[in-house]
Amino acid sequence: MARDLRSILDAVFDGVIVLDEDARVEIVNGEACRILEQSAESVRGLAVEALFGADHALPRLARDVLSTGRPAVEDEVSVEPRDPPLEVDIAVSPLDAADRRAGSARDNGVSGVVVLLRDRTVARSLREIVSERERLDSYGHIAAGIAHEVKNPLGGIRGAAELLAARATDDRGRDTAGLIVREVDRITELVEDLMVFARGDKLRLEPVNLHFVLDGVLDLLALDPLAEGGPVERFYDPSIPEFLADGDRLRQVFLNLARNGLQAVEENGGSLTITTRMSLDERLVGSDGRSLPTVVVAISDTGPGIAREVLHQLSTPFFTTRPQGTGLGLAVSRHWVARHDGTLRITSQLGEGTTVRVALPLRLPKEGS
After folding, report:
1. DSSP string for residues in 48-93
2. Would you say 299 and 258 are in contact if contact means Cβ atoms under 8 Å apart?
3. For residue 278, what are the β-bridge partners?
4. Quick one: how many helices (H) and strands (E) in the chain?
5. Are 114 and 66 in contact (CB under 8 A)?
6. Which of 168, 194, 192, 165 lies closest to 181, judged by CA?
7. Equal CATH topology for 2-119 and 121-200
8. SS3 of residue 365 by DSSP
9. In terms of DSSP bridges, do strands 232-235 and 272-285 run parallel, antiparallel, or are they unpaired?
10. By the 8 A CB rule, do 182 and 236 touch?
11. Burial class (CB in 10 A: 0-12, 13-18, 19+), 244
């Protein structure tokens, strides 16, 4: 009968953990093992605090249910440490002595609890992807409006400045006119950069070797004075095959992200780490609605970190924490990742550093035709 019960529990889509009256693990099914990233043998007999930490919601709920005999639920709880963390809904129900063939019961008749874990990470990711696409679409409308209202007057200002320079009779007049031309060109370049959200340029999908792209980015950065700020470490997953992507756009994305990381460690002499891996937990959804396996590129720096209150603003066009920055690099990177049906997420701790994770769908060449 025990084997039949195990088969039944392993067929359940939710994670199931059975705890005894001391809140120690008795039974754990396959989905719970996936969520915990541990085997059933390694967790059996452990106190619930050893799995999640004493401050986590699940041990608190389990102890409350054991004490009161009343079921409890809590939604959207983070499961850590994971990379990235999962988000689960938790439901805890009491077991009384009549529900079990063996074991003692507390005074309130509760002899254990059953914990159900429902992974909400995929649903959350889908919401984020939809929200991100809507936000990028809104940037496109704004960019088109700015271009329409600004580009023509800029052309007139530039022409007038060139005319002033040609008619100037002294160096001061020529220098002033030249300054106007340079500033107009700078504004025009910013408008062109912003227009990436409005033009809807098509991706040129072809088989891409991800590590070749990353190595090319690092070779390019090696010529930059920023590279003197700290070492760059690479941890590549050799199992990642070639997949369909726009290599030029990915190169632009990773160049922006790596430069940001090197700028973050420029002053404190920290390091930059680039890690690639296949992800079984993060499955992206393509434009055709199909679920796709995922490749993750993590770019981590040991810089000063980013304050929580500004973290969510970093991908907003023209928002920047650097005096000389334009605030477009990260927004453009997020745009091209989204065009690949991928996601870009930033996590950071003040004093510890920042990690940017780019998740890309693994579309194999034979599937792209």
Report:
1. HHHHH-TTSHHHHHHHHHHHH---EEEEEEEE-S-SSPEEEEEEEE
2. yes
3. 295
4. 12, 12
5. no
6. 165
7. no
8. helix
9. parallel
10. no
11. buried
Which tens digit of pLDDT belongs to each residue from 250-259?
A: 998 999 899 8
What whole-number percentage of the chain has pLDDT above 70? 73
Cβ neighbours of residue 246 closer than 8 Å, sequence gap 6 or more: 203, 204, 205, 206, 208, 336, 340
Interhelix angle for 210-221 vs 247-264, to 10°? 50
Q: Is 167 exposed, middle or buried (0-12, 13-18, 19+ CB in 10 A)?
A: exposed
Which one-letter amino acid corresponds to residue 31?
E
Query: CATH assignment of 202-369?
Result: 3.30.565.10
Q: Which residue has the higher pLDDT, 321 or 276?
A: 276
pTM value is: 0.59
Q: In the structure, what pLDDT confidence band is assigned to residue 74 with cuts at 50, 70 and 90?
A: confident
Rounded Cα distance, 21 and 5, in Å: 20
* Whether pLDDT at 276 is above 90: yes
Beta bridge partners of 92: 72, 115
DSSP single-letter state for residue 47: B
Give the architecture (CATH level 2) of 121-200.
Orthogonal Bundle (1.10)
> What pLDDT was estimated at residue 324?
58
| Cα within 13 Å of Cα(181), Cβ side | 14
Domain edges within the chain: 2-119, 121-200, 202-369
What is the token pair recorded at 108?
């309130």
Instruction: Say if CB 328 and CB 193 are below 8 A apart.
Output: yes
Which ranges of 229-341 would DSSP assign to H, the alpha helix? 247-264, 308-311, 329-339
Specify the 3-state DSSP secondary structure of 28: strand
Whose structure tokens read 């107009």?
184
Residues 6 or more apart whose CB falls under 8 angstroms from that of 118 comprise 14, 15, 88, 89, 91
Predicted confidence (pLDDT) at residue 265 exceeds the cutoff of 70: yes
Which fold would CATH assign to domain 2-119?
Beta-Lactamase (3.30.450)
* Whole-angstrom distance, CA of residue 25 vs CA of residue 13: 19
